[in-house]
């Protein structure tokens, strides 16, 4: 069978040899907290200010655009996750519906999305941590608080955080989920405190002019893409994370019910939180001031003469942002694991610890990669590159929904996308537009280079060694 037409059956995703099974320990509330934990993170703590610099108060519309597109994507993920309740997320769905070659590209893009976004969050967390230690009067050389491409030598706090998260994931999935739940509750409490205080300083005059850079993405005299849609392409980074929930399908006790609750519920809750926090921040602080702040939420509270609340919010960010990295690195390790189990990566990587029920080795590899990236790169560059991989994965999942509806309309789905021939195309068109017109040309080029490298690896290894190409070598 030609590599481009090789598709895995749904049954083959659900049955594996001894030592290749992940342990089912999660319930719907774990998934809901994982989703919120992954979505509500650096995006609301840091990218709100960056987005305001690109679109002014119109960044609120950017949040709406991202929310609509992400909701369409979440609905598509929910259908595919209940139709194919197997680990691997968009990679697995594509392998089943669209074929091995496209699945490899999607999996390779997911590697980019998860790994790079985890590093981005680590860098964002490091910024809050650095501000905290400076406030506390602790002297640390600046070159040890910023990455190589951000004016320093190495971002030590980001590296340490990546190592701690890796150890937690190795400890066990259920244990990691419980820690994530605690961190999410801390984070939500701090955001609620911010909203209550910020709305006390709300001023409608801060919303004028509402669209200083217009709607469409355009390049200004400094070579920066501005406008509502340009900001959407950047803050889209703040909206994904629910897709990591779908990677937990194999470790969920009742995937048919729990996955749809986790995916859709986390997206709905997180979108509401984002809009409320962004509205409060822009109402309390003029957008030009907000865009210059390294820690926008803490800046707003300090401006409102509430330094104690600013310290609490900053401390909550330090404590709770690791929940994002926990979930994202979890998703990355599972995508790596499933690709190895399918033979597209070395099968020796697809080993599960008998004691922990987790893929310990591949989790450690993921942690090392995240630590290296977070030690060197800048937040804005990382976020945009992660967006490219996410947009491509969302397009693939939406296309898989339509194709599976056409090929197997009778297949059991405990959740179905409402108006699929509207929702899925809207997801595809929206993500395609953000990719082509929202992302900088350099980001698009790097994404193509990344996938060019991936295709070379696929044809050199995966195309010949996959379980479908060499069934005698399969599990």
Which helices and strands occur, and which strands form pairs?
Blueprint: H1 10-14, H2 28-39, H3 42-55, H4 59-83, H5 89-97, H6 100-135, H7 156-171, H8 173-198, E1 218-219, E2 225-226, H9 228-235, H10 242-246, H11 255-284, H12 287-292, H13 296-303, H14 307-320, H15 322-341, H16 360-374, H17 379-407, H18 420-438, H19 441-465
Antiparallel strand pairs: 1-2
Helix pairs in contact: 2-8, 2-11, 2-15, 3-9, 4-9, 4-11, 4-17, 4-18, 5-6, 5-17, 6-7, 6-14, 6-15, 6-16, 6-17, 6-19, 7-15, 7-16, 8-11, 8-14, 8-15, 9-18, 13-14, 15-16, 17-18, 17-19
Protein name: APA family basic amino acid/polyamine antiporter
Keywords: Membrane, Transmembrane, Transmembrane helix, Transport
Organism: Rhizomicrobium palustre
Task: Fill in the keyword field for this structure.
single chain, 475 residues, mainly alpha, Amino acid/polyamine transporter I, two-stranded antiparallel ribbon, 19 helices, 2 strands, transport, transmembrane, membrane
Alpha-carbon Rg, integer: 21 Å
SSE-based structural type = mainly alpha
Distance between the termini: 19 Å
* CATH H level, superfamily name: Amino acid/polyamine transporter I
**Which stretches of 5+ consecutive residues score pLDDT under 50?**
none
CATH fold group: Amino acid/polyamine transporter I
CATH class: Mainly Alpha
| Anisotropy-based shape | globular
Average pLDDT, rounded to a whole number, is 85
Order of helices and strands: HHHHHHHHEEHHHHHHHHHHH
* Total of helices: 19
The biggest beta sheet is recorded as: 2 strands, antiparallel
Q: How many structural domains in the coordinates?
A: 1
- What strand order characterises the main sheet? 1-2
DSSP helix fraction: 55-70%
CATH architecture label name: Up-down Bundle
Please give the number of β-strands.
Answer: 2
Proportion of residues in β-strands = under 5%
Transmembrane segments: 28-47, 59-78, 90-111, 150-171, 178-202, 228-249, 261-288, 308-331, 357-376, 382-406, 418-439, 445-463
Membrane topology: Multi-pass membrane protein
Keywords: Membrane, Transmembrane, Transmembrane helix, Transport
Subcellular location: Membrane
């Amino acid at each position: 069978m030609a590599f481009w037409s090789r598709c895995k059956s749904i049954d083959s995703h659900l049955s594996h040899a001894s030592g290749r099974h992940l342990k089912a320990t999660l319930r719907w509330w774990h998934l809901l907290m994982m989703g919120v934990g992954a979505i509500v993170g650096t995006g609301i703590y840091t990218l709100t200010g960056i987005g305001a610099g690109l679109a002014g108060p119109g960044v609120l519309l950017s949040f709406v655009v991202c929310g609509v597109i992400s909701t369409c994507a979440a609905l598509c993920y929910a259908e595919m996750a209940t139709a194919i309740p197997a680990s691997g997320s968009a990679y697995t769905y594509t392998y089943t519906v669209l074929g091995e070659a496209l699945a490899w590209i999607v999996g390779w893009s997911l590697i980019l999305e998860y790994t790079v976004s985890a590093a981005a969050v680590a860098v964002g967390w490091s910024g809050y941590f650095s501000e905290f230690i400076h406030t506390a009067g602790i002297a640390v050389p600046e070159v040890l608080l910023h990455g190589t491409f951000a004016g320093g030598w190495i971002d030590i706090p980001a590296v340490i955080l990546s190592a701690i998260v890796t150890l937690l994931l190795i400890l066990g999935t259920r244990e990691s989920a419980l820690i994530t739940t605690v961190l999410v509750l801390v984070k939500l409490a701090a955001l609620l405190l911010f909203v209550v205080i910020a709305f006390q300083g709300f001023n409608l005059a801060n919303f004028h002019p509402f669209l200083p850079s217009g709607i469409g993405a355009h390049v200004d005299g400094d070579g920066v893409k501005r406008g509502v849609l340009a900001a959407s392409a950047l803050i889209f980074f703040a909206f994904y994370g629910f897709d990591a929930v779908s990677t937990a399908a194999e470790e969920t006790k009742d995937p048919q019910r729990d996955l749809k609750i986790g995916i859709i519920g986390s997206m709905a809750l997180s979108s509401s939180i984002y809009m409320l926090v962004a509205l409060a921040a822009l109402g309390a602080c003029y957008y030009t001031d907000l865009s210059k702040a390294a820690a926008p939420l803490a800046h707003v509270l300090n401006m409102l003469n509430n330094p104690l609340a600013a310290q609490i919010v900053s401390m909550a960010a330090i404590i709770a942002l690791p929940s994002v990295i926990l979930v994202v690195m979890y998703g990355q390790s599972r995508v790596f694991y499933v690709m190895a189990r399918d033979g597209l990566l070395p099968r020796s990587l697809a080993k599960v610890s008998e004691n922990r029920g987790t893929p310990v080795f591949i989790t450690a590899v993921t942690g090392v990669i995240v630590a290296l990236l977070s030690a060197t790169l800048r937040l804005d560059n990382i976020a945009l590159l992660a967006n490219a991989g996410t947009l491509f994965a969302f397009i693939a999942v939406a296309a898989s929904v339509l194709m599976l509806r056409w090929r197997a309309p009778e297949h059991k789905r405990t959740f179905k996308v409402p108006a699929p021939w509207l929702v899925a195309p809207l997801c595809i068109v929206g993500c395609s537009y953000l990719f082509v017109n929202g992302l900088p040309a350099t980001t698009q080029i790097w994404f193509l280079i990344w996938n060019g490298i991936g295709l070379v690896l696929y044809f050199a290894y995966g195309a010949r060694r996959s379980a479908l190409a060499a069934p005698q070598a399969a599990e």
